[in-house]
Amino acid sequence: MRERLGAAAAGVAPGRYQILAAINAVHTSARDTDWSQVLALYDQLVRLDPSPIIALNRAIAVAELDGPEVALAAVDRLEDKLAGYHAYHATRADLLRRLSRGRESLAAYDEAIDLAGNTAETAYLTRRRDQLR
Q1: Count of other CB atoms within 10 angstroms of residue 20
Q2: Sign of the CA dihedral with 18 first, then 23, 27, and 32 last
Q3: SS3 sequence, 13-39?
């Protein structure tokens, strides 16, 4: 642990877990999330771990800064890699809802509900979908 702290103090680039911790800290340390800081951290994280799930999470920050249309384009580029992942469809559903594209949002919520892995997620997504009706 001391070696890692020493490395951080010496200017060694942070690793994946340090960046994730920093993202969490930005979310929890202020009343309003500093989305530009979150996006900058995700940009660092994508360079270390270019996984589609990291890209999906980054798109959420993009939505807060540049709007849901820009974020939806980024999310849609992930379809081939995340089509079986409920959070992909839930993210699309929320972005489509924010764009007032109700039918498409309902369909995306339905897909997310079908893929959700537990009852709590299913219940949450069902409530969100039902708010559109």
Answers
A1: 17
A2: positive
A3: CCCHHHHHHHHHHHHHHCCCCCHHHHH
CB atoms within 10 A of CB 86: 19
Token output for 74 = 């980024």
CB 113 within 8 A of CB 105: no
* Cα 21 to Cα 1: distance, rounded to the nearest angstrom: 15
What type of residue is 132?
L
Three-state secondary-structure class, residue 51:
coil
pLDDT at 76 over 80: yes
pLDDT in tens, 89-128: 999 999 999 999 999 999 999 999 999 989 999 999 999 9
Q: Given the structure tokens 């309003």, which residue do they identify?
A: 32
Burial per residue of 22-61, b for 16 or more beta-carbon CB atoms within 10 angstroms, e otherwise = bbeebeeeeeeeebebbbebbebbeeeeeebebbbbbbbb
Residue 55 CA, distance from chain mean position = 7
pLDDT, greater one: 21 or 29: 21
